[in-house]
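Figure 6 in text form: structure in, sequence out.
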């Protein structure tokens, strides 16, 4: 479908600052049909603005929020920041100096030393693009950080921003200008092969962390790339399958991390291999229109490698850069001559690319580094260690077997504990680790422990396990781009059961990309998920096992009790997201199915108590601030991730509860801290598929606060008069 030229020109006029950007847009439904956007009309407020009334002290009335004057546009996108407007003006000046041939060369990749390369034009240097989400891919002498799923398990925004900045610094040191990260497809399918590259199953968590990753990367004058837009939630048939996703689900789940990244100023978005509702993602006017006109994305859309299937169709739908070569965009000159692509569209493509480069400041200050530079540093190794430590998620700890008593002898079982330590996942996110500290080496280096090792492949493990006080079984569950996991089995069920039968003090350490089934759970004393921990694997794990560090990770995705409880990778060429909004814990909650371990769950060596939830008017008009006290009631310092879930009025048709806020808080033993979580009007909003707009449903909302999706320690009710009855 070719959009009308008037639409293209008005979009370009908006992009160039020549016409208003917030005029009613032609919005497109998931069906691919064009529909008119009809924004909700804001209600006037008798007293001049949104109003908030606190709950009665005796609890007889709920808190009340009247969101008058909130309109759909303000729920969807904010005003353009001044630095974007200034960057676009500088980009427009550069654009004016380029010849047609130079413009055409800037919108298609060519060969070179990086994963993606664009030749130098005019006084602009050649552009360099490199993977990926876990650090600098392919090249040596870089830092192997923990995988993004491990970062997600920290729920630590500041840490993720530091991770982004460290990766960005290393990319720049290698001469990279555009980093192909972060990856933000949701873990809809627990066995999906790329879940380790991303931030889990919840769109709010993924969006908050992706946004911090973007800020970190771009702080180093490297453009970040939000990928893969959109509906790329599995690897099976990824290049041909059609993800059928309804409009509301696209907006509320799968667009959400991209919306947060756009708000954070992300410079690039990578469109995905798959089709979405019939059209390939890189030539899909509906989804690319939603991204640019709807979410207000002003940067450039690049294709995934080989994901472009047409010239005029892709260009007119909104693709701005074909990678890694111009197989299709080499035909742009002819398409422009034939008037099937407007000259203004080519100018818009180049303007978008230059705007993002100008916005991060890389054109004025190109990187001096090269692919052979040594970019890993002691500070980055320390950050990798801190992140790996914070990510470790303790799922079971019977009889407080952890932290371990150094006087007890330990048997390390499994190659992942010794000669083959887990570090990273496979595919384009693979990072060449300079070293990996194995758990065995880390325990041996503590000096005061009796530690033995058995690879677990023969019956020798039985006698060795019987002879030890504690058996630590290490399991690495591999995962890679290009294929989904065959099942959720850890692949080590028999070994774990055998060791557990020989030693009642068996502890399982899972280096997993996500959920695994645990048929042996009742037989083991403790379970730790250490994810893909990067180069500092053993150092991080050792510090948690012996209590130098207190585990504080929380699951960024549900661990289902059975494979049947959540979707499997589909081998069909049409993948219908029939569950709509009900993915992950939303699905388990809706079906009343208990998880094996809930989204947001993780134990600590200390304990926490929640009290005194109070709702007040927030700092911004129409926002609500939820404050509560969090107390460390145990004997050790530790971190808790306090989570806030929202239950919508039944008329909204939402799952029973959705995450809308969280805070990771470090508390000394006995310390109490007041925690504040701000809920903005957008937090209360849903997508209307009939109006093609966001709105706030009116009714009673339930706010719960606790340590996981299954721990409603505190709750309060809020009556909202929203933007629709
Ligand atoms: C394909 C992957 O899907 C994408 O994530 C990656 O950035 C490109 N290849 C380049 O390696």
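Output sequence:
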């Amino acid at each position: 479908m070719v959009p009308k030229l008037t639409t293209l020109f008005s979009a370009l006029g908006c992009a160039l600052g020549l016409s208003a950007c917030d005029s009613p847009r032609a919005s497109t439904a998931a069906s691919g049909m064009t529909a008119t956007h009809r924004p909700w009309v804001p209600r006037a407020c008798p007293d001049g603005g949104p109003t908030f009334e606190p709950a009665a002290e005796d609890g007889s009335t709920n808190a009340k929020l009247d969101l008058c004057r909130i309109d759909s546009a303000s729920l969807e996108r904010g005003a353009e920041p001044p630095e974007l407007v200034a960057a676009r003006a500088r980009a427009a000046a550069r654009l004016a100096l380029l010849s047609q041939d130079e413009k055409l060369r800037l919108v298609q990749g060519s060969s070179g030393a990086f994963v993606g390369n664009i030749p130098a034009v005019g006084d602009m240097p050649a552009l360099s693009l490199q993977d990926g989400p876990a650090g600098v891919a392919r090249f040596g002498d870089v830092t192997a950080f923990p995988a993004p799923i491990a970062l997600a398990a920290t729920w630590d925004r500041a840490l993720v921003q530091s991770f982004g900045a460290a990766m960005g610094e290393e990319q720049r040191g290698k001469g990279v200008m555009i980093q192909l990260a972060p990856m933000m497809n949701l873990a809809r399918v627990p066995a999906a092969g790329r879940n380790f590259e991303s931030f889990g199953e919840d769109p709010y968590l993924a969006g908050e962390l992706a946004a911090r990753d973007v800020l970190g990367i771009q702080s180093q004058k490297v453009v970040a790339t939000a990928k893969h837009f959109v509906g790329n939630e599995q690897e099976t048939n990824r290049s041909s399958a059609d993800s059928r996703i309804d409009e509301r689900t696209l907006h509320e789940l799968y667009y959400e991390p991209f919306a947060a990244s756009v708000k954070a100023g992300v410079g690039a978005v990578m469109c995905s291999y798959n089709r979405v509702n019939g059209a390939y993602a890189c030539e899909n006017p509906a989804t690319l229109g939603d991204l640019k006109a709807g979410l207000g994305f002003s940067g450039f859309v690049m294709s995934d490698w080989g994901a472009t299937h047409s010239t005029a169709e892709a260009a007119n739908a909104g693709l701005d850069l074909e990678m890694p070569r111009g197989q299709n965009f080499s035909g742009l000159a002819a398409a422009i001559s034939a008037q099937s692509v407007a000259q203004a569209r080519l100018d818009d493509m180049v303007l978008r690319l230059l705007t993002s480069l100008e916005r991060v400041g890389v054109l004025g200050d190109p990187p001096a580094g090269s692919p052979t530079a040594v970019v890993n540093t002691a500070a980055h190794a320390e950050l990798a260690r801190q992140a790996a430590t914070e990510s470790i998620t303790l799922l079971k700890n019977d009889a407080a077997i952890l932290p371990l008593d150094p006087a007890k002898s330990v048997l390390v079982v499994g190659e992942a504990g010794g000669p083959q330590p887990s570090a990273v996942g496979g595919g384009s996110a693979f990072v060449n680790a300079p070293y990996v500290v194995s758990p065995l080496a880390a325990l041996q280096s503590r000096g005061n422990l009796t530690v033995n090792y058995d690879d677990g492949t023969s019956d020798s493990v039985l006698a060795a396990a019987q002879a030890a006080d504690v058996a630590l079984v290490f399991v690495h569950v591999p995962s890679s781009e290009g294929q989904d996991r065959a099942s959720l089995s850890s692949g080590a069920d028999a070994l774990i059961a055998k060791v557990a039968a020989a030693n009642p003090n068996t502890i399982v350490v899972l280096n997993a990309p996500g959920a695994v089934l645990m048929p042996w759970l009742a037989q083991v004393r403790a379970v730790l998920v250490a994810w893909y921990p990067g180069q500092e694997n053993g150092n991080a794990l050792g510090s948690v096992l012996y209590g130098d560090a207190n585990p504080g990770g929380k699951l960024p995705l549900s661990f289902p009790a059975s494979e049947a409880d959540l979707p499997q990778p589909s081998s069909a060429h049409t993948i219908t997201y029939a569950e709509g909004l009900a993915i992950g814990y939303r699905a388990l909650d809706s079906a009343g199915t208990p998880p094996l371990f809930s989204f947001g769950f993780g134990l600590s060596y200390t304990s926490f108590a929640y009290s005194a939830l109070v709702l007040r008017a927030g700092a911004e008009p129409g926002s609500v601030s939820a404050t509560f006290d969090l107390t460390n009631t145990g004997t050790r310092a530790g971190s808790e991730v306090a989570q806030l879930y929202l239950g919508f009025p039944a008329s909204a048709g939402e799952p029973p509860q959705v995450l809308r806020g969280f805070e990771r808080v470090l508390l000394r033993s006995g310390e109490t801290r007041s925690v504040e979580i701000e809920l903005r009007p957008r937090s209360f909003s849903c997508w209307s598929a009939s109006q093609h707009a966001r709105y706030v449903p009116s009714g009673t909302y339930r706010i719960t606060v606790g340590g996981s999706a299954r721990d409603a320690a505190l709750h309060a009710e809020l009556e909202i008069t929203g933007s629709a009855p």
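Caption detail: The radius of gyration is 26 Å.
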